[in-house]
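Good morning N.,

You mentioned wanting to compare the apo and holo forms, so I went ahead and generated the holo version with zinc ion. This is what I fed in:
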Amino acid sequence: MIKAGLEDVRNTIGMIPDQHLYYFDRYIDNIIPPFIRKWYEHDVAQRSEKGLETQSVLRWLLESSELGDAMLINYLKSSVDRIEKDQDDPDLNKATEKEQEEWLTGVRKGVEEGWLHPDSLSAEQRIGSLTVVYADYFDLSAKDRGGYSIFGKEYVVLGRKVDEIEHIAKHEFNHALIGSFDETWINEAITEHIAQVIDGRRDVEYLGSFSDYWSDSTYRGPRDVLEALVNLGPDLKVADFTRAYSRGDARTFDKLTITRKVASALGMKDYDPLQLLNVHIEKLYNHEVKNNKSHMVALRLACARACIDVYEQPWAVFGNQAWETREKTEVIFSQVAS
Ligand SMILES: [Zn+2]
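and this is what came out, ligand included:
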């Protein structure tokens, strides 16, 4: 039984991309018990004497610890203890409660101002039964996420430091309680944008970047693509996207309206430009994943490329045929430059 469980853990560690294993190392002081850390540091010193590269602590637990299974079991036990303790941590719970209050206030304001669909108000009841779990960093590293949740599931997983909770809680509440789009890039772009608007960090119609990197870095790539889309025509409003995202039952109808607006901005009556853009991003993303990039890095690179393509070679995004048979042939990007 234990053997099978350890096999599972080893397989999971084995699947984490190399460069992402080091993400976990940032938390070594918090989450690796001192006696395991001592062993690790001892091995690191020995490897460096032999001129070998330093291994990430997870890779070390997996491969080179002389104590093998015993070390891994010890790590897992201490990790479970730590996770259980975290769930009752008063500072973390206080931070979460504050985020929930601010978030609900923001949702009500969004509905009042019209950039969130009134369906979002069901969150007022549902947030009471939402379970917040403070994460296991091993789990987050394996998933390549700072936190996560699934739309319609009554739990969210957040980081276990106060500043991480402040940074991601509203984003995860949006995922769990407000809405979703099928395609990862646009789903994350809108989820993060709504979180930042609720946080008072930006206005709903402003997608451009600002200088505070920590506040602005989350899903910057997907948000840049959204900005490029909105810049296609004066009729396109960010609020169209946030309202469609937050509409409970008829999301596809609102999405269709947006698609029509994008198509008409581009003069592509017979094509679905959003679908074509999604295919383009997916292709770029898969290419990066094949090149061993982690999920987050692949998404960032794919979106950066797609964004440039929308501006500089839209025919590569929407296809030559769709591009050349447009009804409008005037330069559509004029408003971007102004
Ligand atoms: Zn997300």
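The pocket of zinc ion is lined by residues 171, 175, 188, 191 (CB under 6 Å).

Happy to go through it together on a call whenever suits you.

Best,
F.
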